[in-house]
Specification:
Length: about 120
Amino acid sequence: MGTILVLAILMAVVAAIILNLVKNKKQGKSSCGCNCGCCPMSGSCHTSKHLTVLEIEGMMCGMCESHVNDAIRNNFKVKEVKSSHKTGLTQIQSDEVLDEELLRKAVEETGYKVKSVFKC
């Protein structure tokens, strides 16, 4: 009888947590607390003031990721830049807002196409 009671309480707690996560997701809040639900990388905690995510077409391998990362590092003052050819996304953390037009130009000069830019 005690096991059934403990199981029922545990199931109620799990259900409450799931309902809370769904409610927060619908309100555009992410689990990192920075309310950056507008970008595809929401939930990725970041410590710098600005997070910029680029959706890039044409990255096929790790070398492509390096080309994009180097282009961004060489043209902007950033804290961190990470690209993934698997997702087609580049995540940039910086202390200042990055100019979207200059970002597009820097990346496209390397032969890749910037499909979209998300700023949080």
